[in-house]
């Protein structure tokens, strides 16, 4: 089950479970679409994997399978990281 983390690891932007602007890697590292594209070039800075759009969990399933409330944030954001492409 996807964790559906609540924020971007780079800029700390809120990413509610219904947003289509959340990007994840295979380890569920989570970034907003702006950081994923403009800063990270579509590659996870943690594992080097591809960042893809996170699926939206249907609202009817959120009561039984809620999104995570645990925020994950890089201490320095994504400062110093550059898009590779």
What does this 3D model show about the protein?
It is a single chain. With about 80 residues, this protein is mostly loops. It has one domain: Herpes Virus-1 (2-Layer Sandwich). The chain is about 15% helix and about 10% strand. The chain is built from two helices and three strands, in the order ββαβα. A hairpin with a 5-residue loop joins β1 (about 20-25) and β2 (about 30). The longest helix has 7 residues, at about 35-40. The termini are far apart. The mean pLDDT is about 90.
Quick take:
By secondary structure, this protein is largely without helices or strands. Helix content is 13%, strand content 9%.
* Helicity range: 10-25%
Task: Report Rg.
Answer: 12 Å
Biggest sheet: strand arrangement: 2-1-3
Order of helices and strands: EEHEH
SS element count, helices: 2
Q: Name the CATH architecture.
A: 2-Layer Sandwich
Show unreliable segments.
none
Protein name: DUF1272 domain-containing protein
InterPro entries: DUF1272
Organism: Phreatobacter stygius
